[in-house]
Write a structure and sequence with these properties.
- The protein is of the alpha/beta class.
- It contains eleven helices and 18 strands.
- The strands form three sheets. Strands 3, 5, 6, 9, 10, 17 and 18 form a seven-stranded mixed β-sheet that branches.
- α4 runs parallel beside α5.
- The radius of gyration is 20 Å and the shape is globular.
Length: about 375
């Protein structure tokens, strides 16, 4: 079938909408008519080759829409179902079997290879094959081709165009708190970076009952939004030393911290602001080979650092929970969102990179 899709043809190049051909779904695949898709930082760093995703490629991995067709072996969803598309995993390795699909031993092959496992691609153009299958969906298009394993059925009462970011950025931030760090009620959390991931973490910390939720961000509008969403305090890192500020607000330092920027110097701050036995979660994406420096004595005295992928989420279980919390008014992630028409994708990308919007969502009629 002919579809419209946003294609990146060169390193750092623009997102260009082109007419492409998309194959029919294979046995375990699901064809989804996209209603909305979030613009995520991971789309942009892969465009810039932080990770070696082959080009030209159709990106997009926060899609939501309606199932159009399913392969012969698909039983989880049916045509007409409302779905959110998330990351993919093998479902067979030791980590997947243990309920940790975000740490699948074949995570790269299932999400960043640019092709199916057999080397084929379902997308093609006038010049031949186009790479796709990004996060097993490539949802920057009017249609996406996902796999049954990364397609999550959601309640039809929720606004479908809005739900795509639950598949990655929102579930990553909320899950890092609710699934990974699991702060006890009354404890303190410092969150470095108040973008989609960080603000979702703020909402997650509020749901967990954290008594002190400190958001660190240089952008005033984002600090204000953090306060609206549940932060008790905010810090401008350009105006004061965030480590000193956090230690003043949470005597002795925070119980937990979350680093959402991908900047090595911010990771150091997120560790240094902890109290003894505190735990720092690292989420921010950086270029392969990026290194950090820590004071060994900080770790020696009971502090911990752990990386977090996709908020330790099991998407089929966690995404419907977030949808229900949103419907109850307890997880208002819609306040992060600015909608753009699909043909304004480059404008949405530019606004995201300039920090003018928190979460851009492309609406596709």
């Amino acid at each position: 079938m002919r579809i419209q899709a946003a294609l990146v043809r060169s390193l750092g190049g623009p997102f260009q909408i082109e007419t492409l051909l998309l194959e029919e779904p294979r046995t375990d695949e699901v064809l989804v008519k996209i209603a909305g898709v979030g613009v995520c930082h991971t789309d942009l760093v892969c465009r810039d080759q932080y990770f070696p995703v082959p080009l030209p490629c159709v990106f997009g991995h926060e899609g939501s829409g309606i199932v159009e067709k399913v392969g012969a072996a698909v039983t989880k969803v049916a045509p007409g179902d409302h779905v959110v598309l998330s990351f993919s995993s093998c479902r067979q390795c030791a980590n997947c079997i243990a309920g940790k699909p975000a740490y699948c031993l074949e995570l790269y092959q299932n999400n960043f290879l640019g092709t199916r496992a057999d080397g084929s691609s379902a997308w093609s153009g006038d010049g031949g094959a186009i790479y796709g299958h990004f996060f097993s969906q490539s949802s920057f298009g009017t249609y996406a081709l996902a796999r049954e394993r990364n397609t999550v059925k959601v309640a039809p009462e929720a606004p479908l165009w809005l739900l795509g970011p639950l598949g990655c950025g929102v579930q990553t931030g909320a899950g890092a708190i609710m699934n990974s760090l699991q702060p006890r009620a009354g404890t303190s959390v410092a969150i470095f970076g108040a973008g989609t991931v960080g603000l979702s973490a703020v909402m997650g910390a509020r749901l967990c009952g954290s008594a002190k939720i400190i958001a660190v961000d240089p952008v005033a509008a984002r600090r204000d939004l953090a306060l609206e969403l549940g932060a008790t305090d905010v810090i401008d890192p350009k105006a004061e030393n965030p480590v000193e500020g956090i230690q003043a607000l949470a005597a002795g330092g925070c119980h937990y911290s979350l680093e959402c920027t991908g900047l090595p110097e911010v990771v150091r701050q997120a560790v240094d602001c902890l109290r003894l036995t505190g735990v720092c979660g690292v989420i921010g994406v950086s270029r392969l080979g990026t290194e950090i420096t820590l004071d060994m004595n900080s770790i020696l005295f009971g502090r911990g650092v752990r990386g977090i992928i996709e908020g330790d989420s099991v998407p089929d279980e966690f995404i419907p929970r977030l949808v229900e919390l949103f419907r109850q008014g307890r997880f208002p992630f819609d306040k992060l969102v600015t909608p753009f028409a699909f043909d304004r994708i480059q404008e949405a990308v530019d606004a995201s990179e300039r920090g003018q919007v928190v979460k851009a969502i492309l609406r596709i009629p």
